[in-house]
Prior knowledge:
The chain is of the alpha+beta class.
Amino acid sequence: MLFKLAFVNVRDRWRDYLVLFSGLIISAAIFYMFEAIATNKALIQANISFKLAAIVFQFGSVLLGIITLVYIVYANSFLMTMREHDYGLFMMLGGKKSRLGFLIFTETLLIGLVSTGIGVLVGIGLTQGLSKLLMSQLGVQITKFSAVNITACLSTILFFAILFLMASLINQYKLLHRPVLKLLRGDSKADKPIKVTVWRYAEGVVGIGFLAVGYWAMAKLEVLQIMTIPIALVTIVLGTYFLFNAFFQLLIQGLKKINMAFKGLNGFTLGQLNFRIRDYTKMLSVVSILFALALGAITVGMGYHRIIPMMAKSNTAYDLAVYKQTPQATKLVNRLDLQKKQAYRQKIKGSTIYFVADDFQRQPFEVATLHKEKVSNRTLSLNQLKHSERGQQQLLTLQMNYFSLRQVKFVSPQVFQAVQAKSSKLVLVQTTSLAKNAENLNRIAENQVQAIKDPQITVQSLGGAYPIYQAANVLFGGLEFVGFFLGMAFLTMLASCLMFKILSGAQLDKRRYHMLNRLGTRQSLIRKSIRREIGALFLLPGILGVVHVLFGLQMFVPLMGDPYINLATPFTIFIGLYLIYYLVTVFIYEKLVVPTVRMQF
């Protein structure tokens, strides 16, 4: 009978349970996505850049575990808030505590296991879809990558099973040791507002001090090396918590003193925030850290996406040198989105390479220069090229046997004819984009390796920007992929955490908004109050997260030069996605708490 009553109650409140299930499924899916990479030893061993990111995964796994634990605590609290009143009624109707204890134990564990199982399946799908999307968009080739990872499946199921087993035992204990009256009225309690004291100001100063130490540690990566990460992780987490605990309360008290607090439902909104400060301080601290990690990861990923072509193009103005004019190579060159194609006759004798001067008169050679993180090409006349050490050096690097060459000579056709060496033609191609033409450039390069028939010659041995681009992708492409992948994972996790925390209080808020409705408050004012309240909860961690990112990018100066270039693009993309989560949260919250019928008197 108890199980039947419980089922009927769940069916009647399916919207609330849908919020619970969706939150738990997302939590398990994100945990699996991260573990799918973190536990894939073959992937890390097969890709150099993943070896460099191994330390990130180690600290990330710990951080994600802590965040997931917090998430499950809130989910369990939400479940108990929904069910306490029902269990109290069951006891009043004669239900035995032992049976009710077994019921809540089974219900909590079943909800956890079912949501975890679905979450793992969703995580596999998300991992597969996101990885394919990123690899296709970024042009990154990752070997040994598989969305289905048995180790990740087992670790996710085991981790969540342990958490839900503990939650089931805690829920059972609470039920058996709580009086019936408290169960019936357990959802009517309200937190007492925190008083503003001297300690609040001291707490703010301590928080700023911790943040300053964390920002300093990130800027001193070359000095502190591996110790930078644990120092920054501990100090920034503590600093964020103390700053929110002090600043949020002081901000609310300050806003209450201005005239805006007395307009519309602003006073009600500030009161809502003031009474929830204890719970939201912890959650906003977690969200701001996740916000910084997600935005930072996407920003660094886009930074690597920007600097890989730049690294390649800074060495030469030409994408690839073609030495053997095979029919296949000619066909593939014609498929390229060409910006320029130049051909020079050449002969190699000893350590000297001879070129026909007339070829450079008709087709001036271009030299690549890097200045302030920007690559530009400069056209040199023959006379300028003869006196340009940089120009001649870049011309030499376009040869396969670059290291054996020492001198460049530009001669007349007659002198060139007299040189006792085999004549060949050097064809240089310049495309509109390395990334867009990478597939055809790779085919041309492989065709050249096959045509040359020298076991010592590989794609990386050829001249041009593409071989450098390919090598840079092997070295940094994995980091670029990891940046985008983790950024999306952390974004989903942080937004889900905040959304779930806000929606978990919907049951308590429903009565307050119904009371406003009975007092004759317009629904437009109620909705505006909700949007402002939720907007503040999304905005505050977002602002601090952006500050964390701006200081945290100092860690990547040694690897990326200037990581602050083109920040508008990743920030715009990320904030756009964050805004979507805000709008979805507002929509669901309004559906749960705003009365559908206006009270008539």
